Task: structure prediction
Amino acid sequence: MVHANTSPDQEQKLHLGNGIAAIAEGEIITFEQLRKSLDPMVPKLRLQANSEAEFTQLIDKVSKDILQNIIDRIIIVKEAYNQGIQIPPSYIDGEYESIIKTDFNGNRSQFLAYLNSTGQTQDEFREELKRNIIVNVMQSQNRKKQSQISPEKIEDFYVKNKIRFYQPELIHLKQIILIPKSGETMETVLETANEIVRQLDAGKPIHSLANTYGDKTFNRANGDWGWIKREDLRSELSEVAFDLNIGEYTQPIQLGEAVFILYAENIQNEKIQPISQVRDLIETNLSREIAQKALDEWLEDLRSKAYVRYFL
Result:
């Protein structure tokens, strides 16, 4: 890869004159192309920056990332052509029509208005679509297959990274929350709570009682709060909840202006998940890492052989 050495004055002249940011394999990349990609990101970058200097640094970094991405696409497409890879026009036509149907509800006039707003012709859009397809095909071809992950590699990763698979103690919690209604006293609320407990003692299901008595503003359907970690609950509630066994429930617990009845639908003790439960996850992650490494190495090789001249 060839890098141009230009002075600040020369760069400024290029910026103001022909507006060239880089030349990759004979293809000119303009500052206008960078600007079109950068403009939508500017508001977010400005929010991220704590100062004007930091904003300028972010703009500079993102601009260079965008430029490198454009260059990579050019050299990938050239490599595809060198390998004789061709995308059938019918396939491109199909993707073209699919975009109009999916992104513009089949409204061709709306699609043309979009092209006009971006300064693109239909031919330019089709050419960009073709390049996108080629880049995707080339990247897919240069990823390694997931089948290359051996059982030994999965087990080795599990042994070395067991802490990743730590699972804290959890409770599948159901609860009923009672709040005094207008004109209602806490004594009345506590009487209702005690009645709920009596019905639980008699075998009435918690979900039915939660839907009947639970304050609709604070309660969930069927009183079901899903799997909860200890730190997800107030300490006054977590200490009681995590002392329950499966199917057990508490007496009414008053905290301020609210009364809680907690029910342990299920309990899961803290543990390291066994490899049988995480094998597929490990294989997927390792496959992704290997595929990305293969892709990065292939791209670095293409960059090293490409002629690229930077002016940014």
